[in-house]
Amino acid sequence: MTTILIRTGIVYxxxxxxxxxxxxxxxxxxxxxxxxxxxxxxxxxxxPVADPSIPxxxxxxxxxxxxxxxxxxxxxxxxxxRLKNLVSSRPNIxxxxxxxxxxEMRRSRISIxxxxxxxxxxxxxxxxxxxxxxxxxxxxISILPKKCATPPTASDLGTTVxxxxxxxxxxxxxxxxxxxxxxxxxxxxxxxxxxxxxGLMPEELxxxxxxxxxxxxxxxxxxx
Length: 224
Fold this sequence. Notes:
It is a single chain. By secondary structure, the protein is of the alpha+beta class. The chain has three domains: 2-85, no CATH class; 92-149, CRO Repressor (2-Layer Sandwich); 167-220, 2-Layer Sandwich (CRO Repressor). It has helices at 2-22, 32-50, 57-79, 81-87, 102-108, 112-121, 178-183, 188-197, and strands at residues 92-96, 99-100, 130-135, 141-145, 167-172, 175-176, 205-211, 216-220. A four-stranded antiparallel sheet has the order 2-1-3-4.
């Protein structure tokens, strides 16, 4: 039993490291080649765990080999865009300038119900509001609305707004986030001093964030 637990732990850590080195991707964002690689990795990794008689190196060597091939192939595809089109399909335009391409819909095997579902998720109510609908290489449909179907922006209204940038986590569940402090070029003493001016302490906050403009956002920790 101890041997199985140790082998499982080793394979698990190795598999996580392999997937991390391949790049950060959500399951729904995987292209065909990446999905095949992921399935193959899981199958190979499970063999020495399910059968203790199989040496663990029979999983380690294939995992390292697949990782090397995947990274090498990714570099080659970046250098040769034409070769990439052989491995993964090009984006397919389903709607162009508001006109539905029925032939492309049939070729891509996308039903009108699927397109309507993606349209609603994009916050649109009618096909007439869509300027472009594109079936991406990862299988997702990107919806680009017409200008008349989008809310006016500050530039459309002729007003000037301050760019606030991203919000970085400084306190998470009463704990100071050192990485967030580093990103904001902020010392812990300076943070505590600023919070004291607001009548706050990190130990009483559930969340504290700061944007690139220096504005603070906080949520107090609820008592149980």
